[in-house]
Amino acid sequence: MRHMRAIGAASAVLVGALALSGCSSSSPEADESEGPVTITFAASILGEPTRGPLLQEMIDDFNASQDGITVEPASVPFSSFGTTIATQLGGGGGPDLIAFDHPNFFAAVDAGHVEPIDDIVDEDALLPGNDNLRIDGVRYGTALDIGNYALIYNPDLVTTVPTTFDELLAEAKAQTTDGVFGYAMRHTQAEEAGVWYDLSGFVYGFGGNWSDEDGTPTINSDENVEGVEAYKEMYDAGVIPQGTDAATYRKMFAEGKIAMMVDNGGIPTVIQGTNPDAKIAAAAAPLPSGETGQVMAVLGVNANGEHIAQTKEFFAWLLAPEQQARIQGFLGGSTAATKVERTAEELEQRPYVEVFDEAGENARSFVPDGLGVQTPQIRTIVVTAVLEALQNGGDIREALDRAQADVEGLL
Amino acid sequence: MTSVTTAPPAQRSAAAPPPGARRHRPARIHGSRFLPYLLIGPAAVYLILFQGLPLLQEVFLSTTKTSLLNPGRNTFVGADNFVKIFTDPRFMSTLWITAVYVVVCVAGIVLVGLGVALLMDRDFPGRAAARSIVIIPWAAPAVAVALIQVWMLNGQYGVINRILEPFGLVPPGGVWLDNQQLALPVILAITIWQLFPFTAVVILAALQSVPEELHEAALLDGAGRWTRFRAVTWPVISPTVGLMALLVTIWSIRRFELIWLMTQGGPVGATNTIVIDLYRRGFVNNQLGESAAVGIVGLVISLTITIVYFVVSNRQQKEGRS
Amino acid sequence: MTSATRLIVTGTAASPRRRRRFSLSSTVVILLILAVLGLAVFPFYWMLVTATSSDTALYGGGVQGLPDLTRLGVFGEVLGSSDVLLWLRNSAVIAGGTTVCTLLLAIPMAYGLSRFRFRGQAVVGIGLLVTQMLPEALLVVPLFAIFSRLGLLNSFAGLVLANTAFALPIVTWVLKNAIDTVPVDIEEAARVDGASRMGILFRIIVPVTAPTMAATAVIAFFHGWNEYIFALTFLTDVGLKPASVGLAGFVGEITTPIQTVMTVGVLYTLPAVALYLILQKYIVGGMAAGSVKG
């Protein structure tokens, strides 16, 4: 009798906890035979103010078009997307359909968390950017969007478009007057992933690469040193807004405070979303080799998911020509996974898309060949070494040599 | 638990209190022998389940090479992770930065708190309001604090630079958080700003329990303000201050969101504390084994500090000082 | 949150307030106090200013020092168009659940630790101290696995359980020390009068230590309200997102609309501060430290 109260209290906790769990999940978990199956779709683009709602509309249309499947967004914020998804996958959970950041995709495949999708993909329809998403002859993902990099500039400020690196540097210096910066790029440790893209852009632009075709790291190759030194020159020239993150400097561009930047095809759309009157034009990136980077969000099916068949059905729907055209419609300068002809209307409203599409012919992904699984770690090593040299005035070649040694030690 | 000073010396040395009012009760006041276990049981089981077991799991993980994407697939590597981190000069730097962070935080938070408490320990109009207002930084969520501070420190548009510009105190490029020399001091300042209200309010409450008579007696004896503080005030509040120091120490070692959201441990590791390092190794680089090893090191350090604290505090008690 | 706190059990008979004459230095003191308060509050003031600033005010040249009261509508906009209200509701549920759960477990444990000597007592004490040192980042992965197996992922219940585990040690510690200060005689008298142990616990201990209970309730509530890592990792449903994750999510790759961010920041901070202000009378009383008369 005396212990009853204590036991009563303890059970109250348990009951409370169970009750809470009852009023938690907002989606009805239904048996496959009984009603719509709910699948979750995680893509950081869903959280974007401009393009997110458009993708959501597509999802709503899919839900309305049939009764068997309900797709719900699981919008994980961009800044922690990779780590959150990885943790959930590792725990045997995670959303059913995931738009991976390209560098995180390969580790997930390697760990067995991604379901092969050969049965729903028509290989011939896919753009070359999707090639590296075939691993050991099996297709694991297709791109949600492919963003090629090119020079984005404000035509009101820049009258002569630079075509070489030296011209770029000179133009940037000329444009940097009070309140306006000639150039912008990511250069802070807090944006490591972004720095990797921008840095790689310079490296590819000078003919460099982080690995060769066999997957041997070539971090400290001569071309790489040249490319990184160009990045450093830009950093030291006083033409970029120091310490500013991409979100801020893209906003600055929209306000006419940045003259030029090399960024991906989706950015002009985003900038115009901020400021519809923003002046934007694009040209090929003014670097010697003509090669630029290519960023991708990769769609993959969670192998741990409970409703793989339904997830594949939704995925296949997204790959159908009609939906691909629609996706391309709101992506702006980026492309969808398959070749979609640009409409005349689009070309008129957004002439810069042609520049990005052309850049796609010489674009290379930011995941070094053969080193997909270790890319996040390689990225940390290289970016840290370069930023250290930048901040402390160190020697680039030495920094890259050290990075090479560290990466070799990793493998 | 009971070795922490909870009663001022005056009470301890009082004449032996009558039985039944002893501080330590007999093993059984009311009835059943099982009652204590029943009372402690649920919470103890709870903690074992949700903290003890995970901790053991982490200890195990620290001896393996494990990927975040596959926590169940472990390759045993023994002490390799520990060797790896201790031979990494960057980890030594991390330890150093953690030490600096903790020490400065404790000193700053306790001293500023003490100062503010002493300042506010008097009658003035609006005293109650002041006490309410000062607590606001502590009551605010870390995520909100991180975001507003990052915005205020923005190199181009931040209000801090706008205010400092006329005085010429703006750092190169206006950059605070991406500056290797300034990042840690800035984080420290913000941490101290966020936590000093807590110590201030607690110490203020402690100050109010200093017996008025003692102050008056000291005044009559002609004691100056400093002497009065040292002889009258300090002995009474020093247990509280000591405890604040311990708590702040433990919290500093644990602090995560503020630093991660502001600098992610950068630039180039300038604000990389143990917890940040642990998080990056585990969640950005997918290396759960290394992450666990770092965590265990951090735990050992916390434990050592706590043990030292108790030993010192016990010895002080024995010596009859406050 | 200090174990050196003593509840002023006897309640009213506090020592008479020290009365200082207003001396010359008092103006300096007042100025200093105002400076301290200003420093404490400024960033939040600035949050409000930024939330109500137009783009030109922010990105143009000058400094807008005061909130633009004409733009207070931004709060209405944000509340109407985004999920902020949902996020705040979720945060409240999580925080409330954490508070209830923590207190339900902590009160008996604190009472037991305070009033009884039993085998394993030292172990429990040490355990409580050690668990206070564990950072959440360290345990998130094993906890994720545990909740996954229990089917508690993506639910408030799981999150509440995790938060409680981290709030429990400190809350128990504080409560235990508060209960220590309550003389046993009261309980023994009640026993003599025939009260049951649970009755004693609830009818005597809890009311007497109420201020400290309020203080620890606030601690637990804040813990749940502010918590980030677990919420980020365990919850995938958009509908379950709390404000901490929602706000942090604004640090996005693409445009961060700073006015919106700050608006959400204000909305997220206000309830926490308001709660503290409402309860602070009790909290400060519960935190009173130092010697006790009786």
Summary tags:
heterotrimer, A: 411 residues, alpha/beta, D-Maltodextrin-Binding Protein, domain 2, 2 domains, 10-stranded mixed beta sheet, two-stranded antiparallel sheet, 15 helices, globular, disordered N terminus, C: 294 residues, mainly alpha, MetI-like fold, 13 helices, 70% helix, disordered C terminus
One letter per element, helices H and strands E, the order of chain B comes to HHEEHHHHHHHHHHHH
Instruction: Give the domain tally of chain C.
Output: 2
* Low-pLDDT segments of chain C: 1-24, 288-294
* Distance, first to last CA of chain B: 18 Å
Describe the structure.
The complex is a heterotrimer of chains A (411), B (322) and C (294). Chain A has 411 residues and is an alpha/beta fold. Chain A folds into two domains: 16-146 and 296-361, 3-Layer(aba) Sandwich (D-Maltodextrin-Binding Protein, domain 2), CATH 3.40.190; 148-294 and 369-410, Periplasmic binding protein-like II (D-Maltodextrin-Binding Protein, domain 2), CATH 3.40.190.10. Chain A has helices spanning 2-22, 52-65, 81-90, 102-110, 165-175, 192-205, 222-236, 246-254, 267-274, 308-319, 321-331, 344-349, 353-359, 375-392, 396-410, and strands at residues 37-42, 69-73, 97-101, 114-115, 134-135, 138-139, 141-153, 181-183, 258-264, 281-283, 292-302, 363-365. Chain A is globular. Chain B is mainly α. Chain B has one domain (91-321): MetI-like fold, CATH 1.10.3720. Chain B is built from 14 helices and two strands; from the N terminus they run H-H-E-E-H-H-H-H-H-H-H-H-H-H-H-H. Chain B has a two-stranded antiparallel ribbon with strand order 1-2. In chain B, helix 3 crosses helix 14, helix 9 (183-207) crosses helix 11 (225-254) and helix 13 (274-284) runs antiparallel to helix 14 (288-318). The longest helix of chain B has 32 residues, at 89-120. Mean pLDDT of chain B is 82; it is low at 1-22. In chain C, helix 4 packs parallel to helix 7 (156-180). Chain C folds into two domains: 3-71, no CATH class; 74-291, MetI-like fold (Orthogonal Bundle). At the B-C interface, helix 2, helix 4, helix 5, helix 6 and helix 7 of B face helix 1, helix 4, helix 5, helix 6 and helix 7 of C.
